[in-house]
Amino acid sequence: MPKVFTSERQKIGETGENVAVKFLMKHSFLILERNYTKKWGEIDIVAEKGGKLYFIEVKSVSYVTDYNSRPEDNMHPWKLKRLARVIQTYLLSKNLDEKEWQVDLLVVFLNLKDRTAKVKVVSDIIL
Prior knowledge:
Blueprint (H helix, E strand, L loop, with lengths): L7 H19 L3 E9 L2 E9 L2 E11 H4 L10 H17 L7 E11 L4 E7 L5
Parallel strand pairs: 3-4
Antiparallel strand pairs: 1-2, 2-3, 4-5
């Protein structure tokens, strides 16, 4: 059954995540999980490259509606705290608590009309 979107924002978010996955795969990342969800938070993408885990938050915006916005500014302290908690849960549940890891942010700017996208990478965010 196809996914039903209840808002334009959800559609943009899903499209942005799909673009992010393709971008990561093009750059030799192995995608381990998408939308790892617990009651206290969600990790958009868990990937691996060179023996290191990457927990990736994806922020997506449409050129048409949000051209001047900075989605990375939406990484509020409470969001980072929730992200840290769900990352620790993931690491413990997979027995990976000794593995090297980092948190990255991928900002995806979508031009839905032209079906193009631009990806901005913010590497190694401190939680």
